[in-house]
Amino acid sequence: MPRKTMIEAIRDGMDVMMERDDNVVVFGEDVGFFGGVFRATQGLQAKYGKSRCFDTPISELGIVGTAVGMAAYGLRPCVEIQFADYMYPAYDQIVSEAARLRYRSNGQFTCPLVVRMPTGGGIFGGQTHSQSPEALFTHVAGLKTVMPSNPSDAKGLLIAAIEDPDPVIFLEPKRLYNGPFDGHHDRPVTPWSKHELGEVADGHYAIPLGKAAIRRAGTAVTVLAYGTMVYVAEAAAAETGIDAEIIDLRSLVPLDLETIEASVRKTGRCVIVHEATLTSGFGGELSALVQEACFYHLEAPITRVAGWDTPYPHAQEWDYFPGPARVGEALLRAMEQ
Amino acid sequence: MRDYPPLALHVPEPAVRPGGTPDFSNVPIPEAGSVARPEIDADPETMRDLAYSIIRVLNRDGEAVGPWAGSLTDDELLQGLRDMMTLRAFDARMQMAQRQGKTSFYMQHMGEEGVSCAFQRALSPGDMNFPTYRQAGLLIASRYPLVEMMCQIYSNERDPLKGRQLPVLYSAKDYGFFSISGNLATQFVQAVGWAMASAIKNDTKIAAAWIGDGSTAESDFHAALVFASTYKAPVVLNIVNNQWAISTFQGIARGGSGTFAARGLGFGLPALRVDGNDFLAVHAVAKWAAERARRNLGATVIEYVTYRVGAHSSSDDPSVYRPKTESSSWPLGDPILRLKNHLILRGAWSDERHKQAEAEVLDAVISAQKEAERFGTLHAGGRPSARDMFEGVYAEMPPHLRRQRQQAGV
C-alpha cells in the first residue's frame, strides 16, 4: 500500500468524496487556489473547479454559517477553520445551529457538515496555534467529535465524517501532519513513510465513527489517549517497561465505551492523557465514565495527565506539553497502588 | 496644559420616552411614487440614493402611483388583504391563549403584517425563507395550515416539532420556511449559504434572509453581507426596521449609519428602502430583488420601514420605555387599513365586505384554534411523549443517548 503523510491522506479523503459525491464542497481561508496553509486541499480546486473548492473571506462564522445553509439545502460541505484556536467566532453557528438543526426542526432540516480544524500543540504555536478545544464540542448535544492519530485513520474517519448525516468536528493534530511525534522534541522526527500506519489504502474506505483502536495490547494498565498523545503514551510505556494497553479513542462522541470498559476491567487501572487543559477537559468525562462502569474492577485511582490549566505558552512549550516523562510517572504511580 | 476638553461617551436616546408626546416629525417621508425604479440589472453604484429614501406606492388618498405601482392584480391584493387580516386575528387569539395559560409565550406582528404577507407573493415554490420569529405572514401567505401553527404554539401531541421548540419558532420546509432559531441573526448568513448552494448546483431557486433592526448589530449580519457580496449569492437580504429591539430604539443598532439599508452600500450591494406598511410597495420591491437574484445578478438589501405596534412579546410591557400612543402617531399608518382603502378606492372592496371578511377570518381562526386544542394545550390534554425528547438529536441514536433514555424510563 502507498504511504502517505497525514496531510496527503486527508487530501485524499476529500478527493475521494468529491469524486464520488457532487454534493461535497470544500472551502475555507486559503483553501482554494493556494491549497491551504497546510496543503490539505492542494489540487482540489484545479481538479473540481471553483464552485466545488474555493477561498472564503476571513470569517469563521461566515464559513460555518454559510455551510449550515448549504447543508440545509442538501450539500455536504467539508469546511476548514485554519486553526482550532480560531473557531470561537463560529462557535454560535456550531453549537446553536449545526448541532441543533435536526432536533429543533424534527428532522425537516439536517446538517451533514464537517468542520476540519488543525489542533494541538508541540509546535511552538503559542497561545493561538496550539489549543485543543475538543471538550467545547464534546459537551454539545448533536455534534460528533473526532480526532485521528495517523494517516490511515485520518482518511477513513474523514470519509466517514463526510458521509455522516450529522455535523462532525474533525480535529487534526497538526503536530502529526508529517510524522508521528512521541514528545521527544530533542530527537529527529521520523516521517510517516517509515511508519506502518502511514500506509493508506487507495480509493474509498470508511472507518466507522465511535470505534476506538487498541494501539498496544497490554495487561497492566489502560491508557486512554487520542491524537498526539497516543505516541507519547507508547513512548512512556516503552520507557517505563509497563505493559500498558493503549487505546486510541479516535472518536470522542460517539465514544467506544465498550472497548474502554473491557480493557479497564481487564487491567484494573486507568490513565487518561490529553493535551487540553485539565479542568473540565474531556478526561474528566472519561474518568467519570470509567469509574461508573468499572468501579469494582479498579485497583487504583484513575489518573489524568493533561495540559496545565493555563493558556498555551510559547517559551515553556515542553514544560506545558504532557510528554513521555509525565505520562511515564503517571503509569508508575498507577502501578504502585 | 491640556489641549482638549475631557472626552464624553455618546449614547443615543429615542426622541421621546413615556409621558412625552410622540414625535416622528424628524422621520422624512417621501411622496408616494417619487422614488425611481431602476432596471433589474442596474449597477448598485447608480442607485445609492435608494438606500436613503423610502419607496412608496400608496399615496394619502389610497391611490397606487409611480414606477413601482402595478405589480399585483386586484385578486392578488384581495388575497393579500385577507392574509394580513388572518395574521392579525391569529395574533389576537394566540396572545389571548397565552394569557389564558394555554401556552407559555407568544409574539405578535401587529403593524408589520404587510412585510411578510406581501413578500411571500414575490417568491416561487422551492425558494427558501430564513425567517426570524416575526414573519409568520410568510407561512400564512403560503397557505401553511393555521392548525399546525397553533399545535406548535401549544406544544401538543400534534406539534410538528414534537414539543422541542419554544412557541412561534416554527419550521416548515415544504412551505419554504426554514427552522427558526432563538439565536438572533444566525439565519441571515445561513440564507446566503443556501443561496450559494443553489448557485453551486446551477439550480433556479433563491433564498430570502430576514433580520430585525436590532439584530443587524450581530456579527452574522456583517458576515452575511460579505459572503453575499463576494459570491453574488442569489439571496434577498431583508431588514425589518420596526424601530424597536425590545426596549432599545433603532438608533442604538444603527449608530451613525444614515439608514440600515445604507449598510449594504459599503458591501457593493444594491440597497433599497421601502415603506413596510405599503403592501404594494413591499411586493414591488421584493419582486424586483427576487428577479435580480433569479437572473444571477446577486443579492439585494431591502430595509422595510415599519413600526412594532405591539409589545415585543407576551413577556414585555412597552409602556415602560415608550409612549403608549406612539404607534398611533406613526406616519406610515396601518398596513391593513391602507390596503383596504386602496381596494375600496378601486371599487374592488367595500366597508361591508371588509366587515364580513373580518368575521370570516375570525371564524376560520377560531375553528382552527378549536381543532388545535383538541390535541392539547401546554398544560392540558395531549402532549408529545418524553421519548420524543431523545429522538432526532442525531440521525441514529448513539449508545450514550440510548442509555439515558432507558434511565429516564421512556
Question: Total domains of chain A, how many?
Answer: 2
CATH homologous superfamily assignment of the largest domain in chain A:
Thiamin diphosphate (ThDP)-binding fold, Pyr/PP domains
Order of helices and strands of chain B: HHEHHHEHEEEHHEHEHHHH
Note the gap between the termini of chain B: 76 Å
Helix content of chain B: 25-40%
Q: What count of helical segments of chain B does DSSP give?
A: 13
Mean of pLDDT of chain A: 98
Number of strands of chain B: 7
List low-pLDDT spans of chain B: none
State the helicity of chain A in percent bands.
25-40%
Computed CA radius of gyration of chain B, to the nearest angstrom: 22 Å
Walk across the major sheet of chain A and give the strand order. Answer: 2-1-3-4-6-5-10
How large a portion of the residues of chain A is in β-strands, by DSSP E? 15-25%
Structural class of chain B: alpha/beta
Named at the architecture level, the CATH assignment of the largest domain in chain A is 3-Layer(aba) Sandwich
| Alpha-carbon distance between the two ends of chain A | 44 Å
Mean pLDDT across the residues of chain B is: 97
What does this structure look like?
The complex is a heterodimer of chains A (337) and B (410). In chain A, the strands form 2 sheets. A 7-stranded mixed β-sheet of chain A has the order 2-1-3-4-6-5-10, sandwiched between helices. A 5-stranded mixed β-sheet of chain A has the order 7-9-8-11-12, sandwiched between helices. In chain A, helix 1 packs parallel to helix 7 (151-163). In chain A, 62% of the residues are buried. Helices cover 35% and strands 17% of the residues of chain A. The mean pLDDT of chain A is 98. The radius of gyration of chain A is 19 Å and the shape is globular. Chain A has 2 domains: 6-198, Rossmann fold; 213-336, Rossmann fold, CATH 3.40.50. By secondary structure, chain A is an alpha/beta fold. In chain A, strand 8, helix 8 and strand 9 form a beta-alpha-beta unit. Chain A has helices spanning 6-20, 44-48, 60-73, 91-98, 101-104, 134-138, 151-163, 229-240, 257-267, 282-294, 317-320, 324-336, and strands spanning 24-28, 53-55, 76-80, 114-119, 144-146, 168-173, 213-216, 221-225, 244-248, 251-253, 270-277, 303-307. Chain A has 12 helices and 12 strands. Chain B is an alpha/beta fold. In chain B, 37% of the residues lie in helices and 8% in strands. Chain B has helices at residues 74-99, 113-120, 136-141, 146-154, 186-200, 219-231, 250-254, 262-265, 279-294, 326-329, 335-345, 351-374, 399-407; strands at residues 128-130, 207-212, 235-241, 244-245, 248-249, 271-275, 300-305. In chain B, the strands form 2 sheets. A 5-stranded parallel β-sheet of chain B has the order 1-2-3-7-6, with helices on both faces. A two-stranded antiparallel sheet of chain B has the order 4-5. In chain B, strand 4 (244-245) and strand 5 form a beta hairpin. The longest helix of chain B is centred in the N-terminal third of the chain and has 26 residues, at 74-99. Chain B is globular, with a radius of gyration of 22 Å. Chain B starts with 73 loop residues before the first helix and ends with a helix. The A-B interface holds A 25, 51-52, 56-57, 59, 61-62, 65-70, 72-75, 89, 92-93, 96-97, 100-110, 141-142, 144, 164-166, 210, 253-255, 257 and B 128, 130, 160-162, 164-165, 169, 171-173, 178-179, 181-183, 186, 189-201, 207, 219-220, 223-224, 226-227, 230, 392-395, 398-400.
